[in-house]
Amino acid sequence: MTLFNNLLCPLDQEVLVHEGRSMHCPNGHVYDIAKSGYINLLPVQKKHSKDPGDSKEMVSSRKQFLDSGIYDPIITGLHSFLFNGQNESAVLDAGCGDGYYLSKLIEENNRQSAQSQSIRNFESVGIDISKWAITAASKRSKNVSWIVGSNANIPVSDCQFDAVLCAFGFPVFSEFHRVLKSSGQLILVESGENHLLELRELLYPSIKEYRQTHMNGIDGFDLANEEKVTFKFHLGSQDEIAHLLSMTPHMHKAPYEGRQKVQELKQLSLTADVVIRSFIKS
Ligand SMILES: C[S@@+](CC[C@H](N)C(=O)[O-])C[C@H]1O[C@@H](n2cnc3c(N)ncnc32)[C@H](O)[C@@H]1O
């Protein structure tokens, strides 16, 4: 079990002290560490709903889809963004879901370190508002500090990370800026113009015009690098198609008729089109 050193109490922002199976702040707020090693730093007072974030079913669908390895090409792209020449890196995955990206990045880092015979230390923290996501994540890797918490109030001291990753997530740029070290990088993974186009064509009567996000920049950050990762993949069963649909926002946004069409398919060939952009804290 790994727990990051500079975690803050979500109620009074004091540094938490680790003792046995819990963490506590000087004012007596205590947070238990779950059996699988994660810590819940989202107290009831800070929740806007009873079960915030992705549901148990969505997390399970995402996990089954990602476990197929279909999105692995995104990892190779991400790894080169994260370790551009650095030997040490502290990384936060903000909205980490079931922990696929961080666990895969650790594997990729170990593989590349072994090949080049130079050890690159990689300290990582994954935060998600969904307790289901963090429960699943904590089973993927014991080498990550997994935290139930919100991007809107990241329970970590200022200037701790070399990189903040936000993949298909809910970015809160002021918080990302606060927890990044000076000149640290924010890495955004977002859908490109043709991402899952074949699925969207089935779901919607017409496809919305694509608009690149953050065209006018992000306050406190400078765009440094951009890479597109595009590949085709095939889903050969209704179960696989259902898992993909359930992990996308289309599950709730698409009209009933479109979802019915997709629920009748036995196979589907698709395009993954992902944009990875890095921004440097200015
Ligand atoms: C589309 S999923 C992406 C998960 C993961 N990054 C991936 O690509 O597999 C978005 C995730 O953001 C989480 N989330 C939503 N609001 C959040 C918030 N305010 N703070 C942290 N996580 C949040 C959801 O629970 C969900 O796991």
Automatic annotation (TrEMBL):
Give start and end of each 23S rRNA (guanine(745)-N(1))-methyltransferase N-terminal domain: 8-50
Q: Which GO terms describe its molecular function?
A: metal ion binding; methyltransferase activity
Q: Which Gene3D superfamilies match?
A: Vaccinia Virus protein VP39
Identify the residues that the record assigns to the Methyltransferase domain, covering every copy: 89-195
> Which InterPro entries does UniProt cross-reference here?
Methyltranfer_dom, Methyltransf_Superfamily, RlmA_N, rRNA_m1G-MeTrfase_A_prd, SAM-dependent_MTases_sf
**What residues does S-adenosyl-L-methionine bind to?**
Y71, H195
Q: So where does Zn(2+) get bound? A: C25, H29
**Keywords from the UniProt entry:** Metal-binding, Methyltransferase, S-adenosyl-L-methionine, Transferase, Zinc
Give a GO biological-process term. methylation
Recorded protein name is 23S rRNA m(1)G-745 methyltransferase
Organism of origin is Marinomonas balearica
Q: What high-level taxonomic lineage is stated for the organism?
A: Bacteria, Pseudomonadati, Pseudomonadota, Gammaproteobacteria, Oceanospirillales
